[in-house]
TrEMBL record:
<protein>
    <submittedName>
        <fullName>UTRO protein</fullName>
    </submittedName>
</protein>
<feature type="coiled-coil region">
    <location>
        <begin position="3"/>
        <end position="64"/>
    </location>
</feature>
<dbReference type="Pfam" id="PF00435">
    <property type="entry name" value="Spectrin"/>
</dbReference>
<keyword id="KW-0175">Coiled coil</keyword>
<feature type="coiled-coil region">
    <location>
        <begin position="208"/>
        <end position="242"/>
    </location>
</feature>
<dbReference type="InterPro" id="IPR018159">
    <property type="entry name" value="Spectrin/alpha-actinin"/>
</dbReference>
<dbReference type="InterPro" id="IPR002017">
    <property type="entry name" value="Spectrin_repeat"/>
</dbReference>
């Protein structure tokens, strides 16, 4: 009777493993929204816990069959053969569910990381847009133009590492068919805004550089003219002081 009960327990265990495999491993999942992906992650965590909890039951079966085999070798031998199959299938099920759970957790982590990088780069784009707007309607003063140019250039020196991460993470998820529509939409909007603002900022940078160069040249010309006027004033004052007749002066002094 004990052998019959153990055989029944082995059959039930095998049936449970078959159902678990169908439910957790053979279903085709399509993760088209973050909610679906998150639910799948939580479901696989529960599946992993559920499967691992059966380890106690498997151990009890193993011990009981060993005890029976010691007392009744003929019955125990048949059950031991069936037990080895169940143990092998159970270990395989555990490994596969652990693997799928780990994969889904990695995918979820990849999605969260992508969102974080998008947030960082969106904040940078907002800052860039603000700096570009600050270059409009500047006072016609060299210091004001120079400060606006330096401010814009400091933002444009932003490294490209985050954008590289966005591209790689997005492509990894899209290639796996994970949230591909949502990610494609987000990346398209981000890239379009990045291209538009970058081109506008670089164009404004070139304009400011040209404006600054013109202002510096004009400032230099005015400085030279001022110096010449001071020197001319000094010479004329000297002539007047010495009561020199105008016709005795050089042509330019006249």
């Amino acid at each position: 009777e004990k052998a019959v009960n153990l055989k029944k327990d082995l059959a039930e265990m095998q049936e449970w493993m078959t159902q678990a495999e169908e439910e957790y491993l053979e279903k085709d999942f399509e993760y088209k929204s973050p909610e679906e992906l998150e639910n799948a992650v939580e479901e696989m965590k529960r599946a992993k816990e559920d499967v691992l909890q059966k380890e106690v039951r498997v151990k009890i079966l193993k011990d009981n069959i060993k005890m029976l085999a010691a007392k009744v070798p003929s019955s125990g031998q048949d059950l031991a053969t069936e037990l080895n199959v169940v143990l092998e299938n159970y270990q395989l099920l555990c490994n596969r569910i652990r693997g799928k759970c780990h994969t889904l957790e990695e995918v979820w982590s990849c999605w969260i990381e992508l969102l974080q990088y998008l947030d960082l780069e969106t904040a940078w784009l907002n800052n860039l847009e603000e700096r570009v707007q600050m270059t409009e309607n500047l006072p016609d003063k060299l210091d004001a133009v120079n400060d606006a140019l330096e401010s814009l250039e400091s933002v444009l020196r932003h490294p490209a590492d985050n954008r590289t991460q966005i591209r790689e993470l997005g492509q990894t998820l899209i290639d796996g068919g994970i949230l591909d529509d949502i990610i494609s939409e987000k990346l398209e909007a981000f890239n379009a805004r990045y291209e538009e603002l970058s081109h506008l900022a670089v164009s404004r940078q070139i304009t400011l550089e040209q404006q600054l160069q013109t202002m510096r040249e004009t400032d230099h010309m005015l400085q030279v003219l001022q110096e010449n006027l001071v020197e001319l004033d000094r010479q004329l004052t000297s002539y007047l002081t010495d009561r020199v007749d105008a016709f005795q002066m050089p042509q330019e002094a006249q």
